[in-house]
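Preliminary data (for renewal application), pyridoxal-5'-phosphate complex.
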Amino acid sequence: MNYVYFDHAATTGVDPRVFARMEPYFSEFYGNASEIHGPGRKAREAVEWGRAAVAQALGANEKEIVFTSGGTEADNMALIGYAQRFSGGHIITSAVEHPAVMESARFLQRQGWDVTFVPVDQYGAVDVDAYRAAFRDDTRLASVMLANNVVGTLQPVAELARIAHDQGVAFHTDAVQVAGSLPIDVDELGVDMLSISGHKIYAPKGIGALYVRKGTRIGPILHGGGHERRLRSGTENVPGIVGIGAALELAVAEMSATRPRLEQLRDKVVAATLATIDEVQLLGDAVNRLPGNACFSIRYIEGESMLLQLDGKGIAVSSGSACASGSLEPSHVILAMGFGAEEAHGSLRLTLGRENTEAEIDYFLEVFPPIVEHLRKMSPLYVKG
Amino acid sequence: MYTDLVMDHFANPRNVGEIEDADGVGQIGNPVCGDVMRMSIKVEDDRIADVKFKTFGCGAAVATSSIVTEMVIGKTLSEAAEISNKAVAEALGGLPANKMHCSNLAADAMHIAIEDYLTRNGRADEVATILKSPKKASS
Ligand SMILES: Cc1ncc(COP(=O)(O)O)c(C=O)c1O
Ligand code: FES
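Predicted structure:
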């Protein structure tokens, strides 16, 4: 069966054009970029090309890009690497961060740091007044994601960074879900650190980068041979670095075509779902959201059941239901937005990507209402109909 | 993560619905993730003549409800009462570790329905003998 893939926030496939750029660096040009012989120089050239491509896409300087093993490591490095400069203090973050940030903050908490998790409104946007009020004399760092991975809500990061800087505090943003989808300029945002990940943007899994603004001092969290200007030891993932550079270059070049197309497909699936199914609501902000994200809460039925039914029809989606998570905890993002476990239970997320077509959206809209009806017939909570 | 049999019961659940003039009804909520399951039974000559279920829950919850209905039809109340959570999971060829708690729901809801039947028929004194470990209905 030809799978309809609507789970691009989880991961994407490597774009064949990206793979073609990477391929020579597996078996042909396999040198270690730290060596000064020919093969080593060839690898070094590729690493520096990738660095320049990433810097260019983010409006940064090459020297400000540190390659990591992915978004998780970039987030850990931003929080824990930055915190190393201090003997302790206070960190501000939001209640809807990805676990990579949230658990790094909790780790620091266990080391004696204070952490404020700033609440969000019903659309998932951080409460700017609460954020402003959270700053203290010993606040060292603020970290708020550029866009949420569950509900797609964009955060007012430029404003949040400005507020932090007014207090003399450094600012990090997790841009993993935004890179390649919307324009990013580190100077316009005014951020000091910014995380990205390859596998969300049609590059492979296991590569990411942290932008670290010149003058922002952080310590390494991986120790060893002193790669990446001593910030991240470990032999460079040369094909991965070429991949993330090529993927960003491609995404930026095609953004003016891809973005409106995805927004139009997203708006279509949202409008049609709200119109054809009763007791459904859109989670997140209707306008201020990622181009490919459509996230719903469907009353009286459970997300894993919807996901499996759609899977049976060859459609891949995700859910924030407690039953669909390994931990049996409902999505902390949906709870932080003020909803109960029931709304999280009925949550369903579609995240569209560049290969999706209008025909695929139409197919979803055709098969989904009968699935909802089937599951509601089975639900002891659904009394109508 | 699910066996083919789990997926079969999930995709084609048996005995879905509600018996209008049921002789006994058992409803239980899942304390782990907040799901709800309801079983209604028809009893003739102390045998389960018919059973229907409604479930709000995951794939495992739907599949365990469905297979329990198949396991109890035609059984005496005592036999039905002996079907354990473990037997339900085993009948499905196993469940992932984090889904074992869902199988508790189906057998428990069935036991509560039997208890409800006995109580309605003035046989509350038999609950302890027929149901070796009576369950308290919740939500
Ligand atoms: C917002 C966000 N941050 C961080 C990550 C982690 O990235 P990675 O999977 O590359 O470690 C993800 C993806 O899982 C994400 O969506
Ligand atoms: S019913 Fe929630 S995990 Fe099975």
